[in-house]
Write a structure and sequence with these properties.
seven-stranded mixed sheet, ATP-binding, 11 helices, about 375 residues, single chain
Length: about 375
């Protein structure tokens, strides 16, 4: 077969620039170098990240915990705002704080960035956020991948994902097996929307015809700046609570599904946690509700409502837990307790259970948010 008379097709003409990828790696080296731990073996650029597992020899029965996640459609706002150095912290928070739920210490993380076109400065900005998040969590960033997908993603489009691994002593694993009736439910504040529910938020904003650079008086900044507020990383504060031996029985990361559904996952089957709406959610939550006329039930099962984590603690450990968190600048507050499910009949409120396929306990949100 005779080839037609045309210019040769190269990888670059197909839309993939390997040299741009190399430049991106050079730009991100300084950030990645700060996100490390003494146990890391080797450096950036290897085929696999390596971690010296002999550091775990002092443990009696080490259990590895792993998690993987992304940040959903929050990336669309970062792209619209052309702000790319915060989305990486969101990614770290979503991954490593799922590991902390079990009481495990996250050790190392890898990331994956898929994009339509490698713009070295943009990729480096994304990775700088990932590295910053790893620093905050005390986690090593041991590797990653940037993949250019022309024709599948637009030149300005990208998505991010990551995975992390941690470790915990078998006897120290937190969860439903430790929870007792009478345990207190503590709410730990979020920094804002975190990284869930952005399909709802974006739909509300689009329907209202608002722009991301619109200044919103009740937020004190633009809507886009508020929505890009990085996810709070709870790793170090919560690990300090774990190590304090205060009677911490369970933790719940409030992500997709909201507070009730995620708390139900870490309660024993047959138990009910009654959570009172005694706090005032930050302004962004009421703004989304009012702007989109979103029903409260839908809002609560989509957004965190100002609570990023929940701790289930023995009554005698509540004061000390609050003190440890306060040392990290975090103010936790009591929102309820674990008890008998028969008490649900006292309130005309729905009971949430069976979330995420877990045959766990149940949660009932009661009362009205102040203000």
């Amino acid at each position: 077969m005779t080839a037609p008379d045309r210019q040769p097709i190269t990888y670059a003409s197909a839309g993939v620039d390997v040299h741009a990828g190399d430049r991106a790696v050079e730009l991100m080296k300084e950030s990645v170098a700060r996100a490390t731990r003494p146990e890391v073996v080797g450096g950036l650029g290897g085929f696999a990240g390596m971690f010296d597992a002999s550091a775990l020899r002092h443990m009696r029965r080490p259990v590895l915990a792993t998690s993987t996640d992304g940040v959903g459609t929050k990336v669309a706002i970062a792209q619209a705002m052309d702000v790319h150095d915060t989305i990486g912290q969101d990614l770290v928070g979503m991954v490593v704080d799922d590991i902390v739920v079990s009481g495990a210490e996250p050790l190392f993380m890898t990331d994956y960035i898929a994009c339509g076109k490698v713009v070295p400065e943009r990729i480096a900005a994304i990775v700088s956020g990932i590295a910053r998040g790893c620093e905050l969590a005390g986690v090593a960033l041991v590797g990653g991948e940037t993949a250019e997908h022309p024709g599948l993603l637009g030149p300005e489009e990208y998505d991010v994902a990551g995975a992390a691994t941690g470790v915990v002593e078998h006897d120290d694993v937190l969860g439903p097996h430790l929870v007792r009736r009478g345990d207190v439910v503590l709410a730990i504040p979020s920094s804002g929307l975190h990284s869930n529910g952005y399909s709802l938020v974006r739909r509300v904003v689009a329907a209202a015809g608002w722009a991301w650079d619109r200044h919103v008086e009740e937020l004190g900044r633009t809507l886009g700046e508020e929505c890009l507020e990085p996810t709070r990383i709870y790793t170090r504060p919560l690990l300090d609570v774990v190590r304090a031996g205060v009677g911490l029985h369970a933790l719940s990361h409030v992500t997709g599904g909201g507070l009730a559904a995620n708390l139900a996952r870490v309660l024993p089957a047959g138990d009910l946690a009654t959570v009172e709406r005694v706090w005032t959610p930050p302004a962004i939550f009421s703004l989304v509700q009012e702007l989109g006329q979103v029903p409260l039930a839908d809002l609560e099962q989509t957004l965190n409502m100002g609570v990023g984590f929940v701790a289930v603690v023995a009554p005698e450990g509540v004061t000390r837990t609050k003190e440890v968190l306060s040392g990290h600048g975090i103010t936790a507050w009591e929102v309820g307790a674990v008890g008998d499910p028969s008490t649900a009949d006292r309130y005309d409120e729905p009971v949430v259970q069976g979330a995420k396929g877990v045959d766990g306990g149940a949660v009932q949100m009661v009362g009205t948010y102040p203000g």
